Amino acid sequence: MSHLPPNHPFRAAWFQALPEPAAQELRSLARERQVKAGVRFYETGEALHGFFGILSGFASVRVDDAEMTDTFGHLHGPGIWVGEFSILLGQSLVGITAHTDLRLVQLSKSDFEKVAAKYPEIWKALAMQTGISGRLCIQIARDLLLRDPFQRCDATLRRLTLNQPLPCELPITQHDLAEICGLSRGVVSRCLSKMEREGLVQRGYGHITLLRAPEETCF
């Protein structure tokens, strides 16, 4: 495992918590999958049978239910696992779309349950991943409650680059960031201009790069 990059899915916290025999078996059962940009591979409310780890590329988490329109809520990058609720509940709670071309590893529900029958303690590891997802939901809510737009943009960019090495180039536009932040494009543009002057970010066509380590970011 030491030869894998830090942001490889098999180095995720929940996977590291597995007994080594169980981890070896899951690695052998995982199948690589490629998804083209724009394809939704995880649909809200559908019965799904997969748990996905991102090898490369970015996936957008989108909320789409009867009470709200399709909304860009978060961006997952390499090393992140998504879909544990399909293992636990048999269906998804959000929609996930390939924001860029993606390479994934996929563990099927049936394979996971087969290994869990031999090593029941892997359910505890999956609970850890569920807790990580729950904490992310709290972070998203906390970020959206920040009334100062500069603080909200800053907190959102730090959340989007969490667990990624810096500088980190995010494949999002100002429009995307405005949607994620729940702010107007004009406000986000002014926030990014301020951040650029302070050396925190750099804008390019179709991307925003966070330059400074989160602990150095302040307002």
Secondary-structure topology with pairs:
Blueprint lengths: L12 H4 L3 H10 L1 E5 L4 E3 L7 E7 L2 E7 L2 E9 L4 E2 L1 H5 L6 E4 L3 E7 H10 L3 H24 L3 H12 L7 E3 L3 H8 L3 H13 L3 E4 L2 E4 L9
Antiparallel strand pairs: 1-8, 2-7, 3-6, 3-8, 4-5, 4-7, 9-11, 10-11
Q: What do you see in this structure?
A:
It contains 8 helices and 11 strands. It folds into 2 domains: 135 residues, Jelly Rolls (Sandwich), CATH 2.60.120; 69 residues, Orthogonal Bundle (Arc Repressor Mutant, subunit A). The longest helix is centred in the middle third of the chain and has 24 residues.
In short:
This protein has 219 residues and is of the alpha+beta class. The chain has 2 domains: 9-143, Sandwich (Jelly Rolls), CATH 2.60.120; 148-216, Orthogonal Bundle (Arc Repressor Mutant, subunit A), CATH 1.10.10.10. The protein is 39% helix and 25% strand.
